[in-house]
Each structure stands twice: as structure tokens, then as C-alpha cells.
Design a protein that fits this description.
The structure is a homodimer. Chain A is α/β, with parallel strands linked by helices. Chain A contains eight helices and 14 strands. The first copy, chain A, has helices at residues 11-22, 87-97, 111-123, 153-166, 171-183, 232-249, 270-286, 317-324, and strands at residues 27-30, 35-38, 51-58, 75-81, 103-108, 128-133, 185-191, 211-214, 225-228, 258-264, 291-297, 307-314, 327-328, 333-334. In chain A, the strands form three sheets. A six-stranded mixed β-sheet of chain A has the order 1-2-4-3-5-6, with helices on both faces. The first copy, chain A, has a six-stranded mixed β-sheet with strand order 9-8-7-12-10-11. In chain A, strand 10, helix 7 and strand 11 (291-297) form a beta-alpha-beta unit.
Amino acid sequence: MKKFINKTDDILAESLSGFALAHSDLVSLNLNPNFLTRAKKKQPKTTNKVAIISGGGSGHEPLHAGYIGYGMLDAACPSHVFSSPTPDQMLAAAEAVHAGMGVLFIVKNYAGDVMNFEMASEMLAFENATVLTSDDCAVINSTYTTGRRGVAGTVIVEKCVGSLAETGASLPACKALGDKVNIRTASIGVALTSCTVPAAGRPTFDISDAEIEMGVGIHGEPGRKREAMREAEAIIKDMVDAIFADFKARNINTNSEVLLLINGFGATPLMELYLIYNSAAKLLAETGLKITRSLVGNYTTAIDMAGASITVCLLDDEIRQHWDSPVHTAALRWGC
Amino acid sequence: MKKFINKTDDILAESLSGFALAHSDLVSLNLNPNFLTRAKKKQPKTTNKVAIISGGGSGHEPLHAGYIGYGMLDAACPSHVFSSPTPDQMLAAAEAVHAGMGVLFIVKNYAGDVMNFEMASEMLAFENATVLTSDDCAVINSTYTTGRRGVAGTVIVEKCVGSLAETGASLPACKALGDKVNIRTASIGVALTSCTVPAAGRPTFDISDAEIEMGVGIHGEPGRKREAMREAEAIIKDMVDAIFADFKARNINTNSEVLLLINGFGATPLMELYLIYNSAAKLLAETGLKITRSLVGNYTTAIDMAGASITVCLLDDEIRQHWDSPVHTAALRWGC
């Protein structure tokens, strides 16, 4: 394993400190318990909005700290690589950012995350609700999951709910939008290589040069099956087909404009992500679907995995409006 | 070699097509000859500005096409991976975007790029000038270079010159600012792994798990020396020292605020880039330097290399102003 690290135990604190330094205009960092909020100096505690909080294991950067800021998250609770954060982090974060209208947790559906956020929810003194993201259509139940996994679609949920919260919408309204976006979103990933968890020091799984892991999770969890490596277009066709089969199986009407997100897992060149976009866009066009919003890049990573995921979000007027609204975070910024 | 590609010969066209589709609000693509301009539909041909054009081999994405748009480039001429573009591309791009005030080429100092842009410069019917970027302090002369290489500092040159050009400044003024930013900028890179050029199908160089290539180029060219892998902070200290030794050797007064750019080469997790930022910021603080602007991410890549570069730009009022000004491109966006 070759990584830019000092001591394995210090990776999280050092990386978070670098993030907070580089973006001191946007975020403030608290260590022990670890959480980040919008910068206290320049963005005084907002009132009259639902506080939007997410969190999870590290290794998926820029998720979630990279999405703290106007129009998106109020706080994030990062834990060690691929480990769940603990309730003390969520409670401290909630205490720091709540503004009288309750707290909405956005939680990717993994057993550890769900359990810890549930404990925090029960212990929290004020009104709160949770949106569980479960956009990964690759598998039902998995290594760390009961039910579908939450993956890159989480970014779209956080963007839309964050936008709605800025308007002063109620906690139930924010939760309802988050649930709707999650339902209208489906993702599937593929790995060319494994990720390497620093504390483990070796690749999470073995994979030959002739193989790919179709439906891989963002922690390197097994997907649907080990398949033969082949041309990009054939891989992408299978992924797009899986997404639309999933919408069909869930009786979701796909007759709408779509947001297409091509997400890199950390080690995939942008050149290849745009090539994937090109193929996916062609395949969607053939089915008569119109892509009206796009996002291409590393938005929900699996440390240093070579691989990518495709996410399709079925837009409606409300989702499109909240996707388009101004956002100012380290990883997503437009309109301000 | 495992990559998301179809046929090796089609990578460039497919990737560029995906880029142009995903950012159709920002760019328009011309194939044969290959060049991209600001989107024709929404941004009608600007008048009364110097046209800023860059280009070079692909594999460094988002450089350069990702920097086309308001406040930065007017056009970019990408060639195949690590190959120089040809004069017909620059001439066609210049013809498409010139607006009566001349053309400024921003060219990374590699022999092939320099030769081809020089030919274009001579053939061009209207006034033009060139800024050669040469911020890499690792080596003098290299595999593809006479003199210092142009690397990630090129992004800062493109941002500042692009900003000045929007004000209607003259061609000599734009060239002068570009040259000044280049002189006040120094970079050095380090590789943990080699990149793999698709057409070659195998890593450009061999490197063991116990080694790093200090001073590596963005095409995988040799750097200063092969060194032992060690803790991040020790590596980063050597890099920061090299940068300040370079400023000193060039008699550049470093008594100023700085912009610190931590650039990933394509396969380095964001978590590690922020850890590098943390160490570099600490080292700069110890020397009494104040970092007032930061950029962390994949901005000038070497395909799928694991590695990173550190760039320090010595700010003055003019450079800071043009760095801060609004920019709207695929890869850099703020203020609009």
C-alpha cells in the first residue's frame, strides 16, 4: 500500500484539518467529537430553517463534508474510513446547528449508520426525522446492509433537500422531498480495481485484469457478479439497463426528463468518466429520454477504487427547481 | 490495462463528445480539426476582448477544455493522450473565437506543443502572442522539454489571464500578466505509481511499492530522483523546500500572501490531497507565509497516476484580484 499518510490513526484528523483549513470560508471543524458545520464566522447560525445533517464513514470524499454550505448541508459527521459515526457526533452537530425547526438526518442505508443515527434520533431533545437513501439498485441486502445501499444518489437528495430547507420549509416537507428524490433515483456501480482501506493495508478484494465487479458497493462490497472485462459501451449498456429494469420493477414511471450523474470512485480519469457519459447519454437518447441536467466527476468515492457509477434521477418540476437553486459548498457550487 | 474505453483510437473523440454533451451550456465542440469553444448558442461571439486559447495533449483533464468559459479560456485544442495538437487546430480555433483584439496562446513548455503553437502563431493572419508556462521547478530540461516544464501552475495563469481579458485589456497586457503569474509560480510533483497511456497499454515506468518518483512530470517523465517511500509529511517537506529553493534561486521575493494548490494526478483520493494540504499549510505557516487562497483537487492530471503536485503562487493585488474574479467553466466556477 502506498498512500500519502503519516500514521494510519491520524488520517482522519489530518485530512479533516486540511479540509477545514482549505475551506475556512465555508466550514468550521470540531474534533472530538468529529463534526463540521458551516463556517461560524461568515455564516452566523441560521434561524428559521430545518437543520440538514449527514454523515458516515470517510473514504467517500467529497461526501459529506464537501457538501456543507449554503443550499445543502448544515453539518456533517465523518467517521474513520468505512466506519459508522457515533451518536455523540450527531448530537453535538445537531446542538451546534439546530435553529428551532428541527433536524433532518440524511443517512445512507448501511446497518451501522442506520443504528447510530437512530440512537441519535431517539436521544435528541428536539424534533427530528431521517431520510434513508437507498438508490443502489445492484443488490438487495449486502455485506453491511439490510435492504438497498445508499450511494451516489445521496448527493442529489442532499442538494434538493438542502435547497428546500433554505426556503424555510417544514421538517415533514423536507423529509417528503428527500424520500421522493430517493425513490426517483437509481444507481449502479462497477469496479475495475479494488479499493485499499488504509488500516487494512491491502486491497479489499482480488480482481484480475480480465474481470470487473458489476454492481460493486462503495466500500468494495460484492455486487451482482464478477464479469468479464469488455468494451466500455457494453458495460455501460448493462448498467443503464439495470437502472431502468429497477424503475420498472418498482413501478416508477420513467416518462420524464432526467439528471444523469456519472460518478468516479476515486481513481478513474475524468477522460474515462466523460467517455462513460457519452455512451450513457447515447443509450438514454435511444430510449427517448431527455437528459436535461448532468454531473460528471468524483462525487461519492470508494477511496482509490478504479470504477464508476451511473445514477439516473427522474426529474419533476420540484426536483429540477431544487437541483438548479444556488449552492455554495466545497464540492458543488453554482448560482452564488 | 483496464480502462473504460471502446477502441483506443476513439477515446479522444468519445471523451470530448461526452464532455461537450455534459456541458452543452458552456462549450461547443468541433471535430476534425478538434477544438472546443465557449458555447455558441448561449454565449454569442464576444467582441472587444483578447481571445485566450490553450491546448495540449489529452490525459490532463480537466486541463484545458474544463477551463473554457466566462473568465477563463475562449477555446482549447486537445490532441490525443500526451500528443501535441497541430497548427490546423489552433488556426481553426483562433478563427472561431478571435474578436478583433488578437489571440493569446497559453502553452505548456513541451517541445512538441511549443513547435506547433509557434507554427500556428506564424501562420495566423492576426495579431497574436504566447505565454509559455514553465512552473515545474523539479528539473531543467526533460524527456519532452527544453527548459522547465509547464504543469499545474498553468491553471492559475489561465484563470488570471482569462479574467484580465474579460476587462477588455490589450494583448500585451494579457501576455504581461500571464508571464508575471508564471514567474511567481512554482510547482513540484511526486508519483506513487505510473500512469498508463491507453495506446501503450502498460505503465509508462516501473516503480516498486517502496519507492516514489520525486519531481515526476505530468506525462510520467522522470523527476529528480527515485526515492524511498516515507511518511507524507517528510515527502511534502521536501517538496515545499524545493519550491522555496527555486524562488530563491530565481531571486523572487517570497514575502507575500500565497495561493496554495494541491493537485491530484488522477488516482489520488481527495482525503489524501487534503492531508497533503494540511501538511503543506503547516510548513508554510512555519516560514511565516500566509495562505490566503487555496485549491485542492484534480486540476492537472496525468491520466491515472497516483501522485500529487504542490503549487505555490506568490500573490500580489493584481493576481489576487484576477484569481478572485467570477469564473464559469466546467472545472472552476465561482462568482456566477
